[in-house]
Amino acid sequence: GAGVSQSPSNKVTEKGKDVELRCDPISGHTALYWYRQSLGQGLEFLIYFQGNSAPDKSGLPSDRFSAERTGGSVSTLTIQRTQQEDSAVYLCASSHGSGNTGELFFGEGSRLTVL
Amino acid sequence: AQSVTQLGSHVSVSEGALVLLRCNYSSSVPPYLFWYVQYPNQGLQLLLKYTSAATLVKGINGFEAEFKKSETSFHLTKPSAHMSDAAEYFCAVSDPWGLTGGGNKLTFGTGTQLKVEL
């Protein structure tokens, strides 16, 4: 597709289960970002990929969170042993080049609800 | 470290009135600054960006913002609000020089929800 695609768009899970969220960036975009959007909290940076490597993973809130990117394209964000505080919208964005000087293109997000 | 403060989590204006959304930044290096808009159930899209050229930046949908270094501000304005402007607006800052050790990420504010009333 032409834009950033995220799946699933909605995910409801039980506390303690693992979840995987997928991001398909715009073709050719080398930079990929994951952000978390919680009510009243704005956008919280999680991790940044340049190609397949993650030079900045400083925003991952705990070791239950991990992410990978393969083939310089698709990225997966995995949350293990989910907790209720993980409930949020997880946004993926991609950019041509390094990202911080240009425009980020965002997907519509994956809304995670942990019961 | 860089940060952004958006004053007012909710702003309400009448249709046709001036829109003013406030953003103040903190950065130890000359920053790049951005305004993004998020319509309901959609991802964020770029409204405009300041990249150290002209201090008055014009964006899409009639919005503009002025970079004021002395006030560390980057407020977003639109002369006449339209119902379609109702959305959440995010200000963001980045370090394009790679000097702050913050990587290549944009740091966002907490957002301002704009409501436009008839």
Summarize the model shown.
By secondary structure, chain A is mainly β. Chain A has strands at residues 5-7, 10-13, 19-24, 31-38, 42-50, 53-56, 65-69, 75-79, 88-95, 105-106, 110-114. Chain A contains no helices and eleven strands.
Element layout with pairings:
The complex is a heterodimer of chains A (115) and B (118).
Chain A (H helix, E strand, L loop, with lengths): L4 E3 L2 E4 L5 E6 L6 E8 L3 E9 L2 E4 L8 E5 L5 E5 L8 E8 L9 E2 L3 E5 L1
Parallel strand pairs in A: 2-11
Antiparallel strand pairs in A: 1-3, 3-8, 4-5, 4-9, 5-6, 7-8, 9-10, 9-11
Chain B lengths: L2 E3 L4 E5 L4 E3 L2 E3 L5 E7 L5 E7 L5 E3 L5 E5 L4 E6 L8 E8 L12 E2 L3 E6 L1
Parallel strand pairs in B: 2-12
Antiparallel strand pairs in B: 1-4, 3-9, 5-6, 5-10, 7-8, 8-9, 10-11, 10-12
Structure write-up:
The complex is a heterodimer of chains A (115) and B (118). By secondary structure, chain A is mainly β. Chain A has no helices and eleven strands. In chain A, the strands form two sheets. In chain A, strands 2, 4, 5, 6, 9, 10 and 11 form a seven-stranded mixed sheet that branches. In chain A, strands 1-3-8-7 form a four-stranded antiparallel sheet, with no helix packed on it. In chain A, a hairpin with a 2-residue loop joins strand 5 and strand 6 (53-56). The radius of gyration of chain A is 13 Å and the shape is globular. The model of chain A has no long low-confidence stretch (mean pLDDT 92). Chain B has 118 residues and is an all-beta fold. Chain B contains no helices and twelve strands. In chain B, strands 2, 5, 6, 10, 11 and 12 form a six-stranded mixed sheet that branches. A four-stranded antiparallel sheet of chain B has the order 3-9-8-7, with no helix packed on it. Chain B has a two-stranded antiparallel sheet with strand order 1-4. In chain B, a hairpin with a 5-residue loop joins strand 7 (56-58) and strand 8 (64-68). The radius of gyration of chain B is 14 Å and the shape is globular. The mean pLDDT of chain B is 92. The interface between A and B is medium-sized, with 28 and 26 residues.
